[in-house]
Amino acid sequence: MRAQDIVGLLREASLLKKSNVIQNVNIVGISDDSRKIARGFLFVAVKGLRTDGNKYLEDAIKSGASTIVSERPFKKAVVGERVNYIQVQDSRKALSLIAALWYENPAEKLKIIGLTGTKGKTTVAHLLHHIFNKVKIGVGMISTVNAVIANEVSDTGLHVTNPEPLLFQSFLKKMVDKGLKYAVCEITSHGLDQERVYGINYEVGVLTNITPEHLDYHKTFANYRRSKLKLFERSKKLVVNRDDPSYRVIRQMFKNDKKMASYSLNADADIVGKIHRMTEDYMDYGVVKDAKVYRGRIKLLGKYNLYNVLAAVCVAQLEGIGLKASMRALEDFQPPEGRLEKVNNELGINIYIDFAHTPDSLENLLLLLKKMTKKRLICVFGCAGERDKRKRFQMGKISGRLADLSIITAEDPRTEDVNGICSQIKRGALKALAKDYFSKDNAERKYLIVPDRYEAIYYSIKSVAQTGDTIVICGKGHENSMCYGKIEHLWKDRIAIENVLKAEYGKNAIILAAGKGKRLNSEAPKVILDIAEKPIVSYCVTNLRRSGFSNITLVVGYRASDVIKEIGPTVNYAFQRTALGTGHAAWQGMKNLKSERTILVVNGDDSAFYKPETFAAVFQSHLESKAKLTFTSTILENPTGIGRLVRDINGTLLRIVEEKIASESEKKIKECNIGMYVFDRGWFLKNIKKVKKGTVGEYYITDLIEIAVRQNDFINVFRLNDSRQWCGINTWDELEHANKKMNEEINKT
């Protein structure tokens, strides 16, 4: 593909404004991301929601771009004399057409079924993909969950349905190369509005339903619906839900120039469905067409899923696959990931994962599960940040009305405060007369705010649910990440649930979280300062849970209410009213634990990088050693400011010496105490009283090591080989280092 080929393409599409092609160079690659440009590439400058590609023209040229496509007029001072410049009416449309040309126009060689709608797109896509495969018609699929091409499964990105043009066209090209005949594609309102699929013609366009959604982007419901209906303008045949309020609008718009088929549960339509019987595992249903009744069974549940089935078999029939064959094909259909996905367990509770993230979908889901559950229905959900704020109250009200317990938590808070979002949801729950979970009110329906999603899931399964209860985790479904700030943290509801189910239960830990962090000079408590957009201490809590610590006590002091608000009510709290040092803080935590024998104690400000296996290994090492006290050491290349371990010639621990009183030879020691301990509780309570107040009026936990040495009590030293897991944070530079380090860890995953 050469530069003049692009000029001709854009001229034919009436998108070309001006072209300045100096050399008809061969294009070796295309990107709309200046960071991905290499020598000989074409760069398409697209103005996005948050950034404008036109700001990066010089970067693209420096990286070797030979041709630029932009809506902006040519500026010699920016572009120079050696780069081709093509000015267009609409760079988004141009990108879609150029991407199609680059991949040899694969859509023209496929019959494309486009699916849009507020709910049900993913399920309908998977149903159709399954039907076509079962009747031996070559089909590929691009859905929210993934792209499936023959036996190859590909990721389609984070928080998106249809990918950007280059990736989308690359999937279609692979389908052509595999000799497939059909492509089943989810098409979102964003994708249609942003012209990601511009120029594609559809064999069949399907609209499942339209209810208010994405109004943060579209602003009005009319705009949202208008974006959806752009799909039908380029569709040869239409399939519509007769029961959806938008049906009349669609019928009026397209009645004269499109072949249209409809489906319904309630009205006169081309096919009409009915549920005959439903269990926890399957649904028996019937479909009527031309007065003839067809019966089927499927592993999908609920009225809303019957609508999805009807949409799929309606499309299949338009493409020559009979109702009987379609319904028989669906008998062994497995629901897509994250759509009423059941997680098996041995606790006697039903656990489901569902993508429900709109008021309508949440209501349909909870109404279904309320009929199925034997005892209580527990709904764990949140609302996304930087998205339509109006639905927060609505969803809180729906869950507050239908669930016995609503656990309100994080769901991609992005740059918003997760507690602020949860408070808005709570107002809806209160409107539905739900009461605080910890109140003495004997209300049937209650709510609870747990800001951290892992902690919310842990608490719902390990502390709340009883035999016969049903838990549903809503809003994330199949997704593989959770967005905090602008950072995508690795996250998957199913993995979180499985980690909770397999975690041991019964171990005890104290997190020291009372300090102010004087050297940071911050108003906020140090432990709730963010690294990678999440509170430092939240990483510690999650990893302790994953390693079997079911009983966690946070010792809080400075601005205790801020820490409690950030972590939530699922841990225990002990209060250090006066800042009297780490030994005194640990003592307050120990007094909260009445009968437990072995306690892990960890600092809340330096433990964000400890792995679950490390916590478990330190604890197990203590038990096996039968020591009175275990503490953790590691080798630090730069141990400045950290206490050193002084050993004799045989390696026996003599003492820990703080740097300020260490001799020159002791300062050269690199083995350091990094402040994670395991104590025999009885020994701790007996000996903490022997700790003397230091020169600044505080009691230090490290003095207990000196007491144990002096008393000849057995001390177990756990050497942590991976020193990178310890990360002390006492200055802004160290906080920035921790932030960078956590981002690197996230990027690895």
UniProtKB/TrEMBL annotation:
Gene3D superfamilies membership: Mur ligase, C-terminal domain, Mur-like, catalytic domain, MurE/MurF, N-terminal domain, Spore Coat Polysaccharide Biosynthesis Protein SpsA, Chain A
Q: What is its EC number?
A: 6.3.2.-
One GO cellular component this record assigns the protein to is:
cytoplasm
Where does this polypeptide localize? Cytoplasm
- Occurrences of domain Mur ligase N-terminal catalytic (ranges): 27-103
Q: Where is the Mur ligase central domain?
A: 116-316
The PTM N6-carboxylysine maps to K228
Coiled-coil parts of chain: none
GO MF entries: acid-amino acid ligase activity; ATP binding; magnesium ion binding
Its pathway? Answer: Cell wall biogenesis; peptidoglycan biosynthesis
Q: Which residues form the Mur ligase C-terminal domain?
A: 338-477
Residues reported to bind ATP = G117, T118, K119, G120, K121, T122, T123
Q: Name the predominant localization.
A: cytoplasm
Which GO biological process entries does UniProt record here?
A: cell division; cell wall organization; peptidoglycan biosynthetic process; regulation of cell shape
Modification after translation: Carboxylation is probably crucial for Mg(2+) binding and, consequently, for the gamma-phosphate positioning of ATP.
Q: What does this protein do?
A: Catalyzes the addition of an amino acid to the nucleotide precursor UDP-N-acetylmuramoyl-L-alanyl-D-glutamate (UMAG) in the biosynthesis of bacterial cell-wall peptidoglycan.
Q: What family classification does the UniProt entry report for this protein?
A: Belongs to the MurCDEF family. MurE subfamily.
Please name the NCBIfam families in this protein's record. Answer: murE, PRK00139.1-4
Q: Which HAMAP family match?
A: MurE
What is the protein's given name?
A: UDP-N-acetylmuramyl-tripeptide synthetase
Taxonomic source organism: Candidatus Woesebacteria bacterium GW2011_GWA1_39_21
**What does the record give as the organism's lineage?**
Bacteria, Candidatus Woeseibacteriota
* Gene designation per UniProt: murE
